[in-house]
Amino acid sequence: MKHRTGTEEDVGAHFGLPHAPCLPARPVRDAGFSVTRLECRLDGDANRLVSLPPDEAYFLMLYLKDAHHCDVAPDGTETETRRFRQGSICLVDLAHGASIRLFSDLYSLAFQLPRELFREIAEFSAAPKATRLKCRRGEDDDVMRNLGAALLPLFESRGSSYAPVLQHIAIAICAHLLHAYADHRGQGVSSSTQLTVWQEKAAKDFMIDHFADQFPMAAAASAAGVSIRRFIEGFKGATGQTPQQWLLRYRTARAKQYLGERSMTLAEIATRCGFTGEDHFTKGFRRVTGTTPAGWRARWLN
After folding, report:
1. Mind listing the pLDDT tens digit for each residue in 126-157?
2. Which residue numbers delimit the HTH araC/xylS-type domain (predicted)?
């Protein structure tokens, strides 16, 4: 099954997959949208270079399985190879193209998102009227994870029956990106204290890897390679949250997953999610959600 028209198939071709299934749409007016399902296997090769040409568009990758790759600069310089978790995203501005070197198989959804599409979405909806998006690397994104799950069955659809659903999901994706990653230049912290996208990723990776543990924020700052003062200021400038607020929201999101399981007690969930006790868990959960873990579980299970 292949839903392709025009140049949408180019995304797969750049990954060595010219016949990768692709779903195109025009969600609002003239600007196109496409999502391609990539199953890129190295087949014994040590690595593979993938290059995307310059375009007036953003490229979004949603990882369906863990992957390892590095960025390749225009001069050929390569960054450190990093792990990109299942369910995380990368968001790249294609103004100057982009290149990566794969060191693992890649299973993902790849989105081609023209700048004009975001302008149309901003006019059509209540989304922010942003002209730029922030570059993201391995960002944990529950919304995109869920929207990606909604997209996967459409690749099995026949004919054009998928089109209305795809249009709605495409609008939801673009509106979410505008809300979550709008780049308001000139606001917040100065460029001298901002974290780089890689420093932000390193800190978040550390906190995710250790979210069930009690650790000082100085350890997350160390993972990012900056002082604790610069880390706190730069992290808030990049995310709009302090590191402690971000970690609390992440722990709460993980707790919600466990609350859907009847077999686990609140005390067990508290321990598994890095809270010091059930009381600490309840207070933190209420701060984020406005309700208690017990209240949330009752609504979820009933």
Report:
1. 656 666 898 999 999 989 999 999 999 999 87
2. 201-299
